[in-house]
Design goal:
Layout: E1 3-8, H1 15-27, E2 31-36, H2 38-42, H3 50-61, H4 69-72, H5 75-78, E3 83-89, H6 91-99, H7 105-114, E4 120-126, H8 134-141, E5 146-148, E6 151-153, E7 163-165, H9 170-178
Parallel strand pairs: 1-2, 1-3, 3-4, 4-5
Antiparallel strand pairs: 4-7, 6-7
Helix pairs in contact: 1-3, 6-8
Length: 190
């Protein structure tokens, strides 16, 4: 079983699909620590109260949710995790990761993980994946130790530039990332 950092960013509409995956990984015996971006940790939305999402993650993992840069920084020196999952990963977080910006707990966690040549698995969820965030996505697809949960257009007619991961493939993508491989096919069929 793996030690996993499960990072959550503010694609709030994806939480209902992502949190069962987190719980499945815990139930499968993985040791998990949840790390939330500031927005995921503190903003109440029409998709739920922040405190409820935090509580759900803590109940699953049995550990306090980390949500600050100082909490995430020791990941690198301590080599704390076998894999770091970012799901959902917003377009904003994709952009920061592609450009080496570490101004959130999640981006600091990813930087700390990558410094040790350990895998980061991304579950993209962004309305501009095929427009504004496409360049960042392309950069990360070519980056070492970064892997993706298969993704595709979630509503090609209503939101033609939107991309979302098939979160149901997270466990299989994790297995491959731990072996240093990108799960295939990368493009999910809807």
């Amino acid at each position: 079983m793996a030690k996993i950092a499960f990072c959550v960013t503010g694609s709030f509409c994806s939480f209902a699909a992502v949190f069962p995956v987190m719980e499945e990984l815990c139930a499968a015996g993985h040791e998990l620590r949840a790390i939330f971006s500031a927005n995921a940790y503190s903003l109440d939305t029409r998709f739920g109260l922040a405190a409820d999402w935090v509580s759900r993650a803590e109940k699953c993992s049995g550990k306090e949710v980390w949500h600050t840069i100082p909490q995430a920084e020791p990941i690198g020196p301590g080599r704390l995790f076998d894999c770091l999952i970012i799901a959902p990963c917003t377009g904003g977080s994709l952009g920061k990761l592609a450009r080496g910006i570490t101004d959130t707990a999640v981006t600091m966690a990813a930087k700390a993980q990558l410094r040790n040549e350990r895998p980061v698995l991304i579950g993209v969820a962004t309305n501009d994946g095929l427009s504004g965030s496409a360049q960042s996505l392309g950069r990360l697809l070519n980056a070492r130790n970064i892997y993706f949960i298969p993704f595709g257009q979630d509503d090609a007619q209503g939101k033609p530039r939107s991309l979302v991961a098939d979160f149901g493939q997270t466990a299989q993508a994790l297995e491959q990332a731990l072996l240093g491989r990108q799960i295939q096919p990368l493009l999910a069929k809807k």
